[in-house]
């Protein structure tokens, strides 16, 4: 848990909560501890003088985004000044925090000002004052605290008493979110496997949550790794899909989600590519169609151990055979086949090598 330290108010004004009547003089004096006070004096003839709220705002907090607010403390240095004696004529009637310009939560009133300067502190590292807070509400210039005082009326007037406040401060306790992972990359392994890697930049995480979105659909949690992990292999992907992953460090205050790029899984690779029949001018090739998402099949040929050249890239889906009628006699041939999809293609299934026979030319018989 971190805290902001004690921060002085940036502004001091008179507020008007219910029941407050009379102004504080020089309310702007509460912004520093310099012995120059905001002063409240009960008007003459008043049976009981209740001040307007002395409002302290614009603290200038900069709590990191995503932080959880754990507790809030407020303190002020105040006293009663009485030329006749120390009768402590002033006490608080309202002491509340301010959220978006409105008083909220618990009223922590009750301190009676002493005749000498004293520091009055409210709240703790785990006290939220009966309400909830976000980091943005604390960082707002409208966040603050205010209090009213009341006097014993004529007694305070006769004694020429006044309430004085030198400064008002607030300290906020918060827990920062875990550091975001970085460099999240999704790499396709095969038709149903994708490996996701990232950099672990946090300390104290309980693990990393891995979520997946398929074909721009909703995010679904597929795993939570151990702490310190920097990779995960998803073996539950489906062939021919677009997969995106996002990673979040888990803990009391998790990090933000960090997304990978798209990972398109290919169709399942065909198997058992083989040369079935060989003639001097024709070879038949077959394979097993294992995919349900391919658009086409592509077949390529190698001649006499050379590189492969595509014979056709438009064989219909579900095709499992091809007849090559462009072969030559007395030549070595090898074939390979793969399934094609819009965004990714399968690996190859490759046949063995076969040699076409020499063409037989009958001899001419001379009579």
Describe this structure in words.
This protein has 367 residues and is mainly β. The protein has 3 domains: 2-175, Jelly Rolls, CATH 2.60.120; 182-264, Immunoglobulins (Immunoglobulin-like); 271-355, Immunoglobulins (Immunoglobulin-like, Sandwich), CATH 2.60.40. It is built from 2 helices and 26 strands. The strands form 6 sheets. Strands 1, 2, 4, 6, 9 and 11 form a 6-stranded antiparallel β-sheet that branches. A 5-stranded antiparallel β-sheet has the order 3-5-10-7-8, with no helix packed on it. Strand 17 (242-250) and strand 18 (258-259) form a beta hairpin. The protein is rod-shaped. Residues 153-158 have low confidence and may be disordered.
H-E string: EEEEEEEEEHEHEEEEEEEEEEEEEEEE
CATH architecture of the largest domain: Sandwich
The global form is rod-shaped
Question: What is the CATH domain class of the largest domain?
Answer: Mainly Beta
**CATH T-level topology of the largest domain:** Jelly Rolls
- Mean pLDDT, all residues: 90
Total number of β-strand segments?
A: 26
- Ranges where pLDDT stays below 50 over 5 or more residues in a row are 153-158
Give the termini distance in whole angstroms. Answer: 112 Å
Estimate percent helicity: under 10%
Mind summarizing the main beta sheet?
Answer: 6 strands, antiparallel
